[in-house]
Amino acid sequence: MSITQVRAACPHDCPDTCALLVTVEDGVATEVKGDPEHPTTQGVLCTKVSRYIERTYHPDRILHPLRRVGKKGEGKFERISWDEALNEIAARLHNIAARDPQGILPYSYCGTMGLVQGETMSSRFFNKLGASLLERTICATAGATGYKYTVGGSMGTDLEHFQDAKLILIWGGNPIASNLHFWTRAQEAKRRGAKLVAIDPYRSLTAEKCHQHIALLPGTDAALALGMMHVLIAEDLLDHDYIARHTLGFEQLKERAAEWTPERTAATCGITVDEVLNLAREYGETARRHEPVAIRMNYGLQRVRGGGMAVRSIACLPALIGAWRHAAGGVQLSTSGSFPSNKVKLYRADLLAGRTPRTINMVTIGDDLLREAAPDFGPKVEAVIVYNSNPVAVAPDSSKVQQGFAREDLFTVVLEHFATDTVDYADIVLPATTQLEHVDAHWAYGHLYMMANNAAIAPMGEAKSNAEIFRLLAQRMGYDDPCFHESDEELAAQAFDKTHPRAVHFDWESLKRRGWQKLNMPDAPFAEGGFPTPSGKCEFYSSQMAADGLDPLPTWIPPYESAASNPALAEKYPLAMISPPARNFLNSTFVNVQSLRATEGEPHLDIHPGDAAARGIDHGDMVRIFNDRGSFTAKARVTDKARAGLVVGLSIWWKKLASDGKNANEVTSQRLTDMGRAPTFYDLLVQVEKASP
Ligand SMILES: Nc1nc2c(c(=O)[nH]1)N[C@H]1C(S)=C(S)[C@@H](COP(=O)(O)OP(=O)(O)OC[C@H]3O[C@@H](n4cnc5c(=O)[nH]c(N)nc54)[C@H](O)[C@@H]3O)O[C@H]1N2
Ligand SMILES: Nc1nc2c(c(=O)[nH]1)N[C@H]1C(S)=C(S)[C@@H](COP(=O)(O)OP(=O)(O)OC[C@H]3O[C@@H](n4cnc5c(=O)[nH]c(N)nc54)[C@H](O)[C@@H]3O)O[C@H]1N2
Ligand code: SF4
Ligand SMILES: [Mo]
Question: Which residue range or ranges hold the 4Fe-4S Mo/W bis-MGD-type domain (predicted)?
Answer without folding.
Answer: 3-60
